Amino acid sequence: MNEPSPRLLPAALSDYAPWPAARPHTGRELARLLALLEGAGFRGGSVALGHGRDATSKDTAEAFADAWLSSGGRLAAVVDWPEDAASWLRQARRLTRPEPDAWVVAAAPVGWAQMSRRLRHSTDWDPRRTFGFASAGDSRLVTAAGPGVLDGMCGATADGRVWTVRRGWVVESDGE
After folding, report:
1. What burial class does residue 173 get, using C-beta atoms within 10 Å of its C-beta: 0-12 exposed, 13-18 middle, 19+ buried?
2. CB burial string 139-168: b at 16+ within 10 A, e below
3. Whole-angstrom Cα distance, residue 125 to residue 12?
4. pTM for the complete prediction?
5. Tens of pLDDT along 57-111?
């Protein structure tokens, strides 16, 4: 028996519309994201970096890659994906196949909702080892992705605070 596709149909996505575009990252956001990775014990480790194909997500991913490599970290993979695709399975496998220590996401909410569902249903991806920029901390994204898909993922807000997905909610804190 075939497992149903984890792809969200357009009608389901429209329940949460309008979806925002990815937001340009800030210096405080990037610094906090690097601190989160270090605090979780991943300093100098291998990170698989995933991003949307829009210009903002690409720029954010490039800034992260430069900062991560400058801090002594390694990139296990850099994978991009479209906002809309038939399944995202190829990109999901490329993102998880190198077995990185952690994952970092720079993407618009709708694309990440789709990609995270594919990762959760088709790979050994772990949201608790996944870190995102502010655009990925959208509560609509968490709801659209479905129960448990993103639980444990965390990231940085534009002002340098921390967001964490807990039991389907995006919870913000100072991270201290």
Report:
1. exposed
2. ebbbbbbbeebbbebbbbbbebbbbbbeee
3. 24
4. 0.92
5. 999 999 999 999 999 999 999 999 988 777 789 999 999 999 999 999 999 998 8
Separation of alpha carbons 28 and 113, rounded Å: 24
Domain spanning 22-171, CATH architecture: 3-Layer(aba) Sandwich (3.40)
Show me where the domains of the chain are located: 22-171
